[in-house]
Amino acid sequence: MSISPVILENIIREAGSIALGYFKNLDTIEVSKKKPRDFVTEADIAVEKYLKNALAHEYPQFGFWGEESGQSANQESRWIVDPIDGTHSFSKGQYFWGISVALEINQELIFGVVYAPALDDYYCAEKGKGAWKNARSIKVSSEDNLDDAMIATGFACLRSYLEENNLERFCRIAQKTTGHRRFGSAAIDLCLVADGQVDAFWEQELNLYDVAAGALIAAEAGATVTDFKGNPGIFPKQILVTNGKILGQLLPLM
After folding, report:
1. 5-137 architecture in CATH?
2. Can you give the pLDDT at residue 33?
3. Phi and psi of 185, rounded to 5°?
4. Where are the beta strands (DSSP E) in 150-226?
């Protein structure tokens, strides 16, 4: 059975509508912690439940790995889902959060979608067929000078307790670049690289569901996706995504 981009978009936009329903009534929803500083809301649970059921109905041959419900069924061919990437931003009423859905078959990413409902930006990619934002083809920036580059990163909650918590790396890179952004959602950060809005993004100690869809979208838009040593591939524990032109200038700072 082939994947219909239209059916997939309908499912994910409906998930976005569910999330927006909660987003517009933040004062009434329950926010709890899975771990210190690691937030989860009623919306995360509801959106993931909907996606799990809707995707299983349309594509029962695929398993599921969601941030909130874990792994189920066939993990050789599976949907990888973060129902709300940027939960803390969501819970504060900020717009930079997104629904991330990727299809992985035999350890290869085939489809990736990141939808930012509060911005109504729908990013998608199919392996070997390019990347799009709101049905418009996108590509990475042409910036080739690190001094003039805009870079995004993150200081996610659980990593703050680590000895290597990204602060020293940020300080090194911040001194060598012009613009620095911290949006709070790795999925959206990766799409901003794909769309040429930022020139590179890095973060560490993430999970595959944080980056799977966004990394495919970035790669299909022409980005390099590596670890901090420049090895190609998707490494959630050390992910560096650039427009390709500033990779060599960034690596010595990583």
Report:
1. 2-Layer Sandwich (3.30)
2. 55
3. -140, 110
4. 150-153, 179-181, 200-204, 224-226
